[in-house]
């Protein structure tokens, strides 16, 4: 069997249904099959737990697309974004994308159960993503799949008939006798009155669908890690051998050069000890001790700056950057340095602020800077200019 399908229940009190087929023969169980390690699991979650939205997204980078989609559907579902899990589909010709939305807690619960049963490598899809193409309304045991204006979604079977008629497409193809009676029409095909029949129908759509056409809920933090198959590994084997041979030759050349450098290093070490002993007699030829003393002497020669002077100069320098804001100030009395985190509009403003401080006679070191939304958080270290 190639795939193991798991029909996740709408209620935690109910048990999942497992289904698989071998040589065209379907088998079903309410527990994980013993040979589940040899199959690829596909979890199908209730369609009523997942909503479908159409969003116009101009971004192309995956991270930007997800961020834009998340905030685009926030108003539709009336939930904070931190409580949502979304999955984004491929872009249509007009630039719109289908976005599936489910509760973050539901997604976490499904993945926790699947992982606890050694099925964490599975794909996770919504039931209405697997709605048969020849149906506009499909009857299932615990839900009804509907397709309107090309978008599939699911509603609960307890929905009143008058509301159901408003949601169902007019003159649509209805699969299921009971559903057809509720809609006041004749059935165009059979629905699924049992969980086994429903799982089999959804599995057949999954297996025959165009690759990438079904939106997987395994996106974002739940994205599956890609594995390199044997075919891909053999494709890179020759390149790997060439790289290994080049590495061996490189290491050999490094070894020869290192041997030559050793003899030069011994001579340089002797000369260095002589110079250190002359420059810093108290170090007794110890290079580390001599460097420490020299650095301390150099620090003494550097003009220390008081925090009040440094902060006043910083506030004055911020005038060149409109809207600049100081986030934190930290003064190190041992080094006489003032470190500031400044929120600015762009990286160029950090250079402009530093130039103003240097004009005031201070030394400035630009530290790390990172993008925060549409602004930049820059680090500046201010000290007295060298004397």
Automatic annotation (TrEMBL):
<protein>
    <recommendedName>
        <fullName>GspL cytoplasmic actin-ATPase-like domain-containing protein</fullName>
    </recommendedName>
</protein>
<keyword id="KW-1003">Cell membrane</keyword>
<dbReference type="InterPro" id="IPR043129">
    <property type="entry name" value="ATPase_NBD"/>
</dbReference>
<keyword id="KW-0812">Transmembrane</keyword>
<dbReference type="GO" id="GO:0009276">
    <property type="term" value="C:Gram-negative-bacterium-type cell wall"/>
</dbReference>
<keyword id="KW-0997">Cell inner membrane</keyword>
<dbReference type="Pfam" id="PF12693">
    <property type="entry name" value="GspL_C"/>
</dbReference>
<dbReference type="InterPro" id="IPR007812">
    <property type="entry name" value="T2SS_protein-GspL"/>
</dbReference>
<keyword id="KW-0472">Membrane</keyword>
<dbReference type="GO" id="GO:0015627">
    <property type="term" value="C:type II protein secretion system complex"/>
</dbReference>
<dbReference type="GO" id="GO:0005886">
    <property type="term" value="C:plasma membrane"/>
</dbReference>
<dbReference type="InterPro" id="IPR025691">
    <property type="entry name" value="GspL_pp_dom"/>
</dbReference>
<feature type="domain" description="GspL cytoplasmic actin-ATPase-like">
    <location>
        <begin position="36"/>
        <end position="223"/>
    </location>
</feature>
<keyword id="KW-1133">Transmembrane helix</keyword>
<dbReference type="InterPro" id="IPR024230">
    <property type="entry name" value="GspL_cyto_dom"/>
</dbReference>
<comment type="similarity">
    <text>Belongs to the GSP L family.</text>
</comment>
<dbReference type="GO" id="GO:0015628">
    <property type="term" value="P:protein secretion by the type II secretion system"/>
</dbReference>
<dbReference type="Pfam" id="PF05134">
    <property type="entry name" value="T2SSL"/>
</dbReference>
<keyword id="KW-0653">Protein transport</keyword>
<keyword id="KW-0813">Transport</keyword>
<feature type="domain" description="GspL periplasmic">
    <location>
        <begin position="233"/>
        <end position="383"/>
    </location>
</feature>
């Amino acid at each position: 069997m190639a795939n193991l399908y798991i029909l996740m229940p709408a209620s935690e009190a109910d048990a999942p249904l497992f289904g698989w087929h071998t040589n065209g023969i379907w088998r079903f169980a309410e527990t994980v099959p013993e040979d589940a390690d040899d199959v690829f699991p596909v979890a199908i979650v209730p369609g009523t737990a997942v909503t479908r939205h159409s969003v116009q997204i101009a971004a192309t980078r995956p991270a930007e697309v997800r961020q834009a989609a998340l905030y685009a559907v926030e108003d539709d579902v009336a939930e904070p974004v931190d409580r949502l899990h979304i999955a984004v589909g491929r872009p249509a010709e007009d630039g719109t994308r289908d976005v599936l939305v489910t509760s973050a807690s539901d997604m976490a619960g499904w993945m926790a159960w699947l992982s606890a049963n050694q099925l964490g490598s599975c794909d996770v899809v919504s039931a209405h993503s697997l709605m048969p193409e020849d149906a506009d309304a499909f009857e299932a045991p615990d839900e009804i799949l509907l397709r309107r204006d090309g978008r599939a979604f699911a509603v609960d079977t307890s929905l009143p008939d008058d509301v159901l008629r408003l949601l169902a497409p007019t003159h649509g193809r209805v699969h299921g006798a009971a559903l057809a009676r509720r809609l006041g029409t004749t059935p165009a095909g059979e629905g699924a009155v049992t969980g086994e029949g429903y799982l089999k129908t959804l599995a057949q759509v999954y297996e025959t669908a165009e690759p990438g056409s079904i939106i997987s809920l395994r996106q974002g933090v739940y994205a599956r890690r890609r594995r390199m198959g044997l075919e891909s590994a053999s494709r890179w084997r020759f390149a790997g051998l060439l790289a290994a041979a080049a590495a061996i030759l490189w290491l050999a050349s490094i070894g020869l050069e290192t041997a030559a450098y050793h003899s030069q290093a011994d001579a340089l070490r002797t000369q260095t000890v002589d110079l250190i002993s002359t420059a810093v007699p108290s170090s007794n030829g110890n290079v580390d001790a001599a460097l420490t003393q020299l650095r301390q002497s150099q620090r003494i020669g550097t003009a220390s700056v008081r925090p009040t002077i440094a902060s006043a100069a910083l506030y004055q320098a911020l005038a060149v950057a409109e809207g600049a804001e100081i986030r934190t100030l930290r003064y190190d009395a041992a080094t006489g340095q003032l470190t500031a985190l400044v929120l600015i509009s762009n990286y160029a403003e950090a250079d402009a602020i530093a130039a103003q401080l240097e004009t005031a006679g201070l030394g400035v070191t630009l530290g790390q800077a990172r993008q925060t939304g549409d602004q930049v958080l820059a680090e500046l270290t201010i000290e007295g200019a060298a004397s």
